[in-house]
């Protein structure tokens, strides 16, 4: 095994983050350490308010930690292919169809056939009949799957997804979690998925749990 393949894709060391609300300080992250290996799917469990979104935002670079370090180690691909995010509120562009939303980052990343790649992923996620609709013309569960397709289409080194199955029924949750796992394993991509969902956790290579801003326990997926 080469040295490179054993290096983590993501390294989080001693990350803290606090928010001020008037005179109150909310300590959202209290010294989080986490490593994710290439091809590994890690599910981040935790109650509402435990700090999952804050951690994903710090890893995505959308928020700056107060202290500690976040490193995404990638030696391949364009910047578009390093970290892809599925935000909790999807972030689809309103004026583009689902197919256009998904093809856009593939085009920006220089993928050879962005439209074909987008359609293939959308079809795989059960969205064949809605791919030419605008985000406002689809259900929340359909929009959520399109947001996941938009992140996966660039074959990112690291996929970050905030509740990627939160709007899906049981059968779809299982299907989506399996697709993420298969794509990560095939492509050597790593994934960090925040979830409340036991089905998503069951598909993980590893489960970590945030409790009041601290990573408390870590268990292998069963
Ligand atoms: N911008 C902000 N300003 C003030 N407090 C915030 C802000 N963002 C998050 N918080 C607080 O930080 C804590 C962690 O929030 P975070 O959104 O990371 O939790 P979460 O585990 O993702 O929750 P959920 O599962 O409900 O999405 C919570 O107490 C939350 O109220």
From TrEMBL:
The answer to keyword Ribonucleoprotein applying to this record is: no
Which molecular function GO terms apply here? ATP binding; ATP hydrolysis activity; transmembrane transporter activity
Pfam families in the record: ABC_tran (PF00005)
Q: Which cellular component terms (GO) are annotated to the entry?
A: plasma membrane
Name of the featured protein? Putative ABC transport system ATP-binding protein
The record's annotation in SMART domains points to: AAA (SM00382)
- Domain ABC transporter, first and last residues per copy: 10-221
| Keyword flag ATP-binding | yes
Query: What does the UniProt keyword field contain?
Result: ATP-binding, Nucleotide-binding
High-level lineage: Bacteria, Bacillati, Actinomycetota, Actinomycetes, Motilibacterales
């Amino acid at each position: 095994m080469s040295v490179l393949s054993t290096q983590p894709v993501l390294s989080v060391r001693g990350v803290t983050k606090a928010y001020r609300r008037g005179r109150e300080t909310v300590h959202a992250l209290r010294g989080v350490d986490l490593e994710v290996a290439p091809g590994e799917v890690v599910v981040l469990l935790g109650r509402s308010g435990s700090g999952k979104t804050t951690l994903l935002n710090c890893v995505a670079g959308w928020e700056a930690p107060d202290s500690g370090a976040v490193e995404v180690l990638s030696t391949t691909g364009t910047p578009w292919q390093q970290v892809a995010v599925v935000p909790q509120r999807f972030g689809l562009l309103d004026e583009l169809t689902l197919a256009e939303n998904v093809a856009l980052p593939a085009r920006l990343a220089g993928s050879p056939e962005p439209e074909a790649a987008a359609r293939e992923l959308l079809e795989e996620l059960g969205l064949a009949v809605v791919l030419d609709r605008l985000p406002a013309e689809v259900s929340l569960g359909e929009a959520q799957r399109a947001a996941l397709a938009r992140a996966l289409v660039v074959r990112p080194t690291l996929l970050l997804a905030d509740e990627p199955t939160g709007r899906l029924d049981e059968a779809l949750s299982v299907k989506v979690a399996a697709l993420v796992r298969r794509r990560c394993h095939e492509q050597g991509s790593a994934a960090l998925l925040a979830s409340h969902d036991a089905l998503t956790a069951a598909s993980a290579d590893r489960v970590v749990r945030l409790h009041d801003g601290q990573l408390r326990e870590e268990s292998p997926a069963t």
